[in-house]
Amino acid sequence: MTPDEILARLGALPEGQQKEVKSDTLRITSSRYFVPNAGPQTDAYFSPADELFYGGGAGGGKSALLCGLAIEEHSKSIIFRREFPQVRGLVDELREHAARGKPIQRAIGFVHFPERSEKKQGRRSKSAQEKRSR
Length: 134
Hints:
By secondary structure, the protein is mainly alpha-helical. The protein contains 6 helices and 4 strands, in the order H-H-H-H-E-H-E-E-E-H. It has one domain. The relative contact order is 0.10.
């Protein structure tokens, strides 16, 4: 059953039953740090795949998904990022989750791979080219 089908069935219930389902859902999920959004984030969260490719533009919930899985489902996680500000953003995201409840009892590591100074988007910079030609 897809999230859209679930929402359609919820919408078909009488108002009193809708409130009861919503109340039960909030009660059941209140002890969780992270609950995935309906749609692709939920599909990715519950995917049995060993490798998962989840793309898209900014604001699509990819980083939140990484943090949510690290907190809720994995006992050890390591998240790789190319740029340090991206790592800082993930640490901030995890702090937000931790502020909502009990301490996070997981091993979560972050690895930052700094770009080599002579590489710019897969090409050598002009100064690096000049050094090589000497």
